[in-house]
Design a protein that fits this description.
Pfam families: Methyltransf_31 (PF13847). It comes from Amphimedon queenslandica. By secondary structure, the protein is of the alpha/beta class. The protein has 8 helices and 9 strands. It has one domain: Vaccinia Virus protein VP39 (Rossmann fold).
Length: 226
């Protein structure tokens, strides 16, 4: 476990978890890659197809995003979100993941679906993967990556700050950032990304009741860079 100021719930942080480690995701996607090769199963769609469809539908209905907009998915995993966008006609799509197995899985699925998507292996927090994309992106997508960073056993708070700086650097002026989280509420996301953005919209998800209170299965916020 890390210092309470840098990674644990003791200072408003989430508890550290193996889900916040590269080793976990390397192992997970290596397994899913083998399953895909043998059975053609693409593996888990993070937060489910319904969540993915809600994000895609919002993008389709947005007057801010065209079919030619430059879109990047940070922590793309098996690439399912970008592949669905490609099948909907979007043409400038890039996925980045720090797991080489995830990138290889995404490439193979895209090839099978005849979807034109560029997939890159790299860690946006530690290397120059995004250097050539600075200030070039119209829409940054995140479906679970910020959650994983928040669960890091080492310096989670520092990594969250570096992540935010990377997203801001990627976006053009007035560019959009859509983040989906199962660990942070909409209000928490709005607070954590308050600097450099305005809230453009929220995308509702199914609600549930527990102990007399209502909650949502995921929180999705659309930010606009100011």
């Amino acid at each position: 476990m890390s210092d309470p100021e840098e990674g644990n719930e003791g200072n408003g942080e989430l508890p550290a978890s193996s889900l916040g480690t590269k080793e976990h995701w390397d192992n997970e996607y290596a397994r899913e890659l083998e399953v895909f090769k043998e059975f053609g199963d693409i593996g888990e769609v993070w937060f489910g197809y319904d969540c993915q469809t809600r994000v895609v539908n919002w993008i389709k209905e947005s007057s801010c995003i065209s079919l030619e907009s430059n879109i990047i998915d940070l922590g793309c995993g098996n690439g399912s979100l970008l592949i669905e966008l490609a099948c909907s006609g979007y043409t400038q799509l890039t996925g980045i993941d720090y797991s080489a197995a995830a990138v290889e899985l995404a490439k193979q699925i895209a090839l099978k679906e005849k979807a034109k998507v560029k997939f890159l292996c790299g860690d946006i927090l530690t290397d120059d993967t995004i250097e050539d994309m600075i200030g070039q992106i119209d829409l940054v997508l995140d479906k679970g990556t910020y959650d994983a960073i928040s669960l890091s056993p080492n310096e989670a708070k520092t990594k969250r700050k570096a992540y935010n700086e990377s997203v801001l650097s990627l976006l053009k002026k007035d560019g959009l950032f859509i983040i989906v989280s199962c660990n942070w509420t909409q209000d928490e996301l709005k607070d954590q990304f308050s600097s450099g953005y305005v809230v453009l919209d929220t995308i509702p998800s199914p609600s549930f009741w527990f102990g007399g209170n209502v909650g949502q299965t995921t929180s999705t916020v659309v930010f606009k860079k100011t």
